[in-house]
Design goal:
The complex is a heterodimer of chains A (386) and B (409).
Chain A lengths: L5 H7 L5 H8 L13 E7 L10 E10 L2 E8 L10 E3 L14 H4 L8 H20 L4 H12 L1 H4 L2 E5 L11 E6 L9 H4 L11 E7 L7 E7 L1 H6 L17 H37 L3 E4 L6 E8 L2 E8 L10 E10 L5 E6 L10 H26 L3
Antiparallel strand pairs in A: 1-2, 2-3, 3-4, 5-6, 6-7, 7-8, 9-10, 10-11, 11-12, 12-13
Helix pairs in contact in A: 1-2, 9-10
Chain B lengths: L1 E4 L1 H12 L5 E16 L7 E15 L15 H8 L6 E9 L7 H14 L5 E9 L6 E8 L8 E2 L1 E2 L21 H10 L11 H65 L6 H16 L61 H6 L8 H13 L6 H6 L19
Parallel strand pairs in B: 1-3, 1-8, 4-5
Antiparallel strand pairs in B: 2-3, 2-4, 5-6, 6-7
The chains are: A alpha+beta (386), B alpha/beta (409).
Chain lengths: 386, 409
């Protein structure tokens, strides 16, 4: 079933219920995984077929939760729009929330557009409780849950999905979805603004799936907001350690958290370091600077002259600078290669140390240029064409 | 557990539901009965199966949603009583109708069900869910219904049967035990019932038939006694007849021998015959005298064939004589009330064919009847030999096959 786009859904729903649905599909974000929106499918009507449209008043709401998608039926009555909705909780036939703990149900007010969204959030909280209850079937997993709950860093932002017990094998599976308390606020803005959509809050979610209740098959996975992922160098740059056999979450999760924090620090530091580097080069080379990346400080181009030989030097600063060495590309302004490009040579290994500060690096770079340029010039004259 | 709903209740619920422009709900009224089936087979002594049968007789629709519960699903007992009034004790479940939804109990329905179970005090309260599914272009609509027993952990769905909904050409039309709760029906029956029912509620015709049956039974009993008696009499007579036959045969032999001796003697000398006829006569006389006082038929010449059962006697005019049942066709037009055994008094029956069918027992011609009458009346007189001679008719009397109208009838 294809989910309906918000516009289509809103056009088909009964007019009195439209504001409620709007707040759900347009800005509705529930749970930890705020990046995926709530989706609507199966929009149907409870009125007779003689009723002129639009009169849809019941639909299926897809809610991301703990790596799963809950499909809840929400049933209104277009004829009585002031009445609160009814719910069918899909496959979770045992889930029966306590109505008195749903304030937005008890004092339902169709006039308030966020009423439905708030009610769904309250139901989710109860659903979370219900899932945690189900962990009782496995003492091991219950222990995991309990230990995490006690830790203030993780206890409050945790979603648990205790899967169905496999009736054939008696296997019990569960998934923990944790929000990692990593501070992404200092990540340079330029890294984050490349993403096309506004993803919302930057989060890192760690999902740990237990395929059996003895924790012998554990599969962790890290989910990052697209911007964070991009900022940290893509999904390939992040490899989290495997879950140690016999280990437990309360040890593993902080480990992953630390790893992530370190990476973020690297990135932040890298940015600053690059900035420092560029600044130093600017001050050292002054008029020789052709252009530089003033946002990300990842590139720098210099036009230098040595004994009437002018050449360009392109400096590419990697993401994990200063750990990773900048790439120097020497380019002749006179000579072409056979393919029509300017003759250039790339130098990746040259005297370098990450422990140098910007100034030192600039100085050393200058020295290197001087030492390398004769070689380059020869090469340019030899192989290049004017 | 089985459940059934009468066709008219089902269609009534569907009608109410389909005509509502929103979800619809109401209560189911009826009764639960326990059926015990005892099956006996050769292999084991017997097994009893208990089956709970839920019967839905009627329904009480709610005028609107949330009429007896609030937003949180709390049931208001006052409102509940207002809806149910005095039918509260007949409630066996409740129903809900919703279009285009899954066949699964919803959150609020479960909450309400729990409370209703508790408030109404029905542990096995059932919930009937109707869902109406329509295709997108409204070309096909399906009404689906499922009966739930939510208070049980397993086997929560029960199949609901609607008697006589189906192919009745191959099945009998079933009459369900649903009582007719219509007030109009009850008042009409009360008003006109006395024409058909007596004070005990039993149909009058049945009583009349039963009376006829009892009368017939009595008569049959009486006839049985008569038959019994006449059979005994016949036996005795048969014995006598046999004895007489033997005597006659003996006498014949004796007389033949006597003659032979006489002839032999005559051939030699003259024998003395005087004793013989006397002995013969005396034996006859003895026989006559010793014959049973019951019947004059002793004097009749006996032939080898055994007399028919009923040919020897005739029902006389006087009822004190031995009565032989004279079967007649029941409902024969000429004889609205056949009286067994008495016949027409003259020994004839109007239905010769019937006589034939019952095997030879009869009667015959007027001549015979008159002769038999004579016979009967003779039992009062001393037997005379001459009459027996004239009655030398073979014992088996066959009807001529014509219908003989009895004389004077």
């Amino acid at each position: 079933m294809n989910s309906l786009s918000p516009e289509v859904a809103l056009s088909r729903i009964s007019p009195e219920l439209r504001p409620l649905l709007c707040s759900v599909v347009c800005n509705g974000r529930v749970g930890l995984d705020s990046s995926s929106c709530l989706r609507i499918t199966d929009l149907k009507s409870g009125c007779t077929s003689l009723m002129p449209g639009p009169c849809c008043d019941r639909f299926k709401l897809h809610i991301p939760y703990a790596g799963e998608t809950l499909k809840w039926d929400i049933i209104f009555n277009a004829k009585d729009p002031e009445l609160p909705p009814d719910f069918i909780f899909g496959e979770d036939a045992d889930f029966l929330p306590e109505p008195s703990e749903l304030p937005h149900l008890v004092s339902w007010d169709t006039g308030k557009p966020e009423c439905l969204l708030q009610l769904v959030k309250e139901l989710l909280q109860q659903y979370h409780q219900y899932q945690c209850q189900r962990l009782r079937d496995s003492s091991r997993l219950l222990f995991e849950y309990g230990s995490l709950l006690e830790d203030p860093n993780y206890g409050r932002s945790m979603e648990i999905y205790a899967g169905r017990k496999n009736s054939w094998t008696g296997e019990f599976s569960a998934r923990f979805l944790l929000k990692l308390p990593v501070d992404f606020s200092n990540i340079p803005v330029y890294l984050l603004k490349d993403t096309a959509l506004d993803p919302g809050e930057d989060v890192a979610l760690l999902s740990v799936s237990f395929e059996d209740d003895e924790a012998t098959q554990v599969f962790p996975k890290l989910y990052l907001s697209p911007s964070i992922e991009h900022a940290l160098g893509g999904s390939s740059a992040l490899h989290i350690p495997a879950f140690p056999s016999g280990g437990c979450l309360i040890d593993y999760v902080p480990q992953v958290c630390q790893l992530l924090t370190n990476k973020v620090q690297y990135v932040i530091q890298g940015y600053h370091k690059r900035r420092e580097y560029i600044a130093a080069f600017l001050s050292h080379f002054g008029m020789g600077v052709v252009e530089y990346d003033a946002v990300g400080f990842t590139k720098l181009t210099l036009l230098l002259m040595w004994k009437d030989f002018c050449f360009l030097v392109h400096v590419d600063l990697p993401l994990y600078f200063p750990r990773d060495q900048p790439t120097l590309t020497f380019q002749s302004i006179y000579h072409f290669t056979s393919s029509g490009q300017l003759y250039s040579q790339v130098q990746k290994s040259y005297p370098y140390s990450p422990r140098w500060d910007g100034n030192e690096m600039a100085k050393r770079a200058k020295a290197y240029f001087k030492s390398f340029i004769p070689q380059f010039q020869e090469g340019a004259f030899a192989t290049g064409k004017l | 557990m089985a459940a059934s709903i009468s066709g008219y209740t089902f269609s009534s619920v569907c009608y109410h539901s389909a005509n509502s422009n929103s979800d619809h709900e109401g209560f189911l009224l009826g009764e639960v009965r326990q059926e015990e089936t005892l099956s006996i087979s050769d292999s084991h002594i017997g097994s009893a199966e208990f089956l709970s049968v839920i019967e839905v007789h009627n329904h009480e629709p709610c005028a609107q949603l949330f009429s007896f519960y609030d937003y949180a699903g709390n049931v208001n007992e006052e409102n509940l009583n207002r809806i149910l009034k005095d039918r509260r004790k007949n409630v066996i479940g409740w129903y809900r109708f919703r279009r285009n939804t899954q066949q699964q109990m919803s959150f609020r329905e479960q909450v309400i069900h729990k409370q209703l179970t508790h408030i109404l005090g029905i542990p096995d309260l059932v919930f009937l869910l109707f869902s109406f599914i329509s295709t997108a272009n409204s070309s096909t609509h399906a009404l689906e219904y499922v009966l739930f027993r939510p208070n049980r952990k397993y086997n929560q769905r029960i199949s609901l049967s609607i008697p006589n909904l189906g192919n009745t050409s191959q099945q009998e039309y079933k009459v369900s035990s649903v009582p007719n709760t219509s007030k109009n029906y009850a008042s009409v029956i009360k008003e006109h019932g006395t024409e058909f029912f007596d004070k005990d509620g039993v149909m009058k015709d049945i009583r009349a038939i039963f009376q006829v049956y009892s009368a017939l039974q009595e008569r049959v009993q009486a006839v049985c006694c008569e038959v019994d008696q006449s059979e005994r009499v016949r036996e005795k007579i048969q014995e006598e007849v046999n004895k007489l036959k033997e005597e006659i045969a003996l006498r014949k032999r004796n007389s033949a021998e006597e003659e032979r001796r006489l002839q032999e003697a005559a051939a030699v000398t003259l024998p003395d015959n005087s004793a013989l006829p006397d002995s013969k006569h005396s034996s006859l006389t003895q026989v006559v005298l010793s014959g049973p006082s019951v019947e004059p038929s002793v004097e009749r010449p006996v032939n080898s064939s055994s007399p028919p059962i009923y040919s020897s006697t005739l029902p006389p005019d006087s009822p004190s004589a031995i009565l032989l049942p004279r079967p007649q066709a029941v409902g024969s037009p000429g004889h609205p009330s056949p009286i067994l055994g008495l016949g027409n008094g003259d020994g004839s029956s109007s239905d010769s064919l019937n006589r034939q069918a019952t095997g030879q027992e009869d009667q015959e011609d007027d001549e015979d009847s008159s002769e038999y009458e004579n016979l009967v009346s003779e039992q009062l007189q001393p037997p005379s030999l001459t009459e027996t001679v004239t009655l030398g008719r073979p014992a088996t009397l066959w009807p001529d096959g014509d219908a003989h109208s009895p004389p004077g009838s």
